[in-house]
């Protein structure tokens, strides 16, 4: 059930991204969305999806310690519980990737889990491609493999490269989270011909959470 809600919400969120870009151009076009906007917008979409399915859910932003940079949103739907973290991947180099994993590790300390509900951690991020190698390897690092539509990227001047590592391995090693569901989207389209803009990338990763995933519940 909860995985279906996440999948439906991500599809709806693509349309939300297009509207946000239209309303806030050129800010989003140049920089992507702020962490808090990413997390809050997707969280609201999930609450709407749950409501459409007859499940009431509340949404709050958790208070976090000063060393945790990323905003965390908690969606409380009774037996369905989601924690959403938004992250803007401005510079996708090794330092930024490591900081993201560390922030997730620290964030797990804030989460309250129990065995009587279905819990998910949902990470959402975006990125505008640039000419750096870090940017070119980001899709394969996030997915764990190269995207299938390489020719579409190349047609827009994006020459993707294979990453040496992967988000899946990094997050399993440092956060003890495995069996994640990693996705990549290109929600924006050119107004004149409706062609997909591959230079903007939206990424998601979802994980099932158990009480032993949080350091605070050990």
Please specify the SSE layout and strand pairing.
Layout: H1 2-24, H2 27-31, H3 35-52, E1 58-61, E2 72-77, E3 80-88, H4 94-108, E4 118-128, H5 133-143, H6 150-155, H7 167-175, E5 181-185, E6 200-209
Parallel strand pairs: 3-4
Antiparallel strand pairs: 1-2, 2-3, 4-6, 5-6
Low-confidence segments, given as residue ranges, are 25-30
Query: What does the average pLDDT come to?
Result: 86
Judging from the principal axes of the Cα atoms, what is the shape?
A: globular
> What is the CA–CA distance across the termini?
27 Å
- Count of separate structural domains: 1
Task: Tell me roughly what share of residues is in helical segments.
Answer: 25-40%
Which strand order does the major sheet show? 1-2-3-4-6-5
